[in-house]
């Protein structure tokens, strides 16, 4: 029903008007703010995203997130943490611990961080390899020291199974196991999710894709997110928009909640 511009995005003023005068009055939305993986390793540690292709500074998300937390009356707040055991399947230095499938594009001996391999399984499993990061109970897995942690917020831990990676905060990558997020959202009757954090094109992207698939009204806060690869960030945005998600800047959130 909304007019769409050339990028397929809806007009923000039109959206804000309909939201405040019609949708909110009828639907009585309940909002959740989900802050994804704002952890030391992604900002200044072993998986420092500023050293990746997009060269984005992960610490820049802290200020807009803190502003949102102290300004916007979200009904509930969630923080996710990438939380891996030392023998996790995604670590490049663990690649020799498991057998690769013959179809793997790189052998264990040649594999480097950021390469994608195929583990033997069964079933065979594609896996991007990363530097060892966010090991449970280490400094690298802690939230950034300047990130505001609000009272009553819920922490969601993911990637705890050594055999399966977990980019989405809802599910592991094989959709074998759910985190506590779905249940906690349902308990609170959440209808709308505002998502931001690190990394835009990895865990933030996978999380909003699942949120849209489940049927939440899903909003990505663009200026409160930073990523790894520019092309993948663009792909993430395209996927969000084509699945009826909304991409906004933090200052626009105040008029939506
Ligand atoms: C992430 C790579 C590996 C993320 C987690 O939080 O985006 N990226 N593990
Ligand atoms: Zn990880």
UniProtKB/TrEMBL annotation:
<comment type="pathway">
    <text>Cofactor biosynthesis; nicotinate biosynthesis; nicotinate from nicotinamide: step 1/1.</text>
</comment>
<keyword id="KW-0378">Hydrolase</keyword>
<keyword id="KW-0106">Calcium</keyword>
<comment type="similarity">
    <text>Belongs to the isochorismatase family.</text>
</comment>
<dbReference type="GO" id="GO:0005509">
    <property type="term" value="F:calcium ion binding"/>
</dbReference>
<dbReference type="GO" id="GO:0019363">
    <property type="term" value="P:pyridine nucleotide biosynthetic process"/>
</dbReference>
<keyword id="KW-0662">Pyridine nucleotide biosynthesis</keyword>
<keyword id="KW-0479">Metal-binding</keyword>
<feature type="domain" description="EF-hand">
    <location>
        <begin position="1"/>
        <end position="25"/>
    </location>
</feature>
<dbReference type="GO" id="GO:0008936">
    <property type="term" value="F:nicotinamidase activity"/>
</dbReference>
<protein>
    <recommendedName>
        <fullName>nicotinamidase</fullName>
        <ecNumber>3.5.1.19</ecNumber>
    </recommendedName>
</protein>
């Amino acid at each position: 029903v909304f007019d769409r511009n050339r990028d397929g995005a809806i007009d923000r003023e039109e959206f804000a008007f309909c939201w405040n005068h019609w949708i909110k009055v009828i639907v009585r939305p309940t909002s959740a703010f989900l802050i994804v993986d704002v952890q030391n390793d992604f900002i200044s540690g072993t998986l420092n995203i500023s050293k990746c292709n997009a060269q984005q500074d992960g610490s820049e998300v802290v200020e807009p997130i803190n502003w949102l937390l102290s300004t916007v009356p979200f009904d509930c707040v969630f923080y996710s943490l990438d939380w891996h055991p030392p023998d996790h399947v995604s670590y490049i230095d663990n690649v020799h611990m498991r057998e690769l499938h013959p179809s793997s594009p790189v052998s264990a001996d040649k594999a480097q961080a950021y390469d994608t391999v195929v583990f033997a399984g069964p079933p065979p499993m594609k896996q991007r390899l990363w530097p060892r990061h966010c090991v449970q109970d280490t400094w690298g897995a802690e939230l950034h020291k300047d990130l505001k942690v609000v009272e009553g917020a819920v922490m969601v831990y993911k990637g705890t199974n050594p055999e399966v990676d977990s980019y989405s905060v809802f599910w592991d990558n094989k959709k074998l196991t759910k985190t506590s997020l779905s249940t906690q959202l349902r308990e609170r009757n959440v209808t709308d999710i505002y998502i931001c954090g690190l990394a835009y094109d990895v865990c933030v992207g996978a999380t909003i894709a699942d949120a849209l698939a489940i049927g939440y009204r899903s909003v990505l806060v663009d200026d409160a997110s930073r990523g790894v690869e520019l092309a993948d960030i663009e792909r993430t945005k395209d996927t969000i928009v084509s699945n009826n998600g909304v991409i906004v800047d933090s200052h626009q959130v105040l008029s939506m909640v």
